[in-house]
Amino acid sequence: MDTWTTIRNGREALGDYLAGLSADDWNRPSLCAGWTVKDTAAHMLVIPTMSKGKVFLSFLGSGFNLDKMNAKIVKKMTAAMSTADIAAKTRTSAESQSMPPGLKLPGVLTELVVHSSDISEGVGTPFALPVEDYLAALDHLKNIQPVFGSKERIAGLTLRATDAEWSTGSGPTVEGSAQQLLLAVAGRRSALDRLSGDGLTIFKTRQRKLISVLP
Fold first, then answer.
1. How confident is the model at residue 209 (pLDDT cuts 50, 70, 90)?
2. For the whole model, what pTM was predicted?
3. Using one digit for the tens of pLDDT, what is the confidence trace for 131-141?
4. Read out DSSP for 124-149?
5. What residue ranges define each of the domains in the chain, with the CATH number in brackets?
């Protein structure tokens, strides 16, 4: 299956998941610091629905500050869209192959996989994509330092998935499901409680030191 088909399927599944949430669920905090489930779901519509030009102009208008740009866009979108609108748009825009400036295809998949987990973990109701999607995102993030800080976070450690034949790195081991490993690599500290291994103490220490780089 090609990556765009994987992304389309994931977006459609997420749209169905979002459509089944209650009003309380939408208002719960997601794993994205300071954002509710609604905020995060709205943010996920930026890639498939905003043109490169609009994204660039918003970036320019925010002084080239990614955090400020994201906050402004999310505030505008959540004010204009109901939760039903967001769920529906997530599904109807699933086939979009738009990519904002500076983001490549593996990054588009990673955004989907990480943020859908941010949402489901916040809600407390499982939403699972195929394990291969989490592995693809892990393979992308393991070499990424900007924004996520992942490369420095996992340096000198072995990461091992317990639900798939996947590992990376060398050194003390941190292991867990592919989804929880991905969340931890992306800087979501709540995932640490679901991991194990003789490298976990080091990993936890690095999470505290690098928390300021989280998207």
1. low
2. 0.91
3. 999 999 999 99
4. TS-----HHHHHHHHHHHTT--TTT-
5. 3-95 (no CATH), 131-213 (3.30.1050)
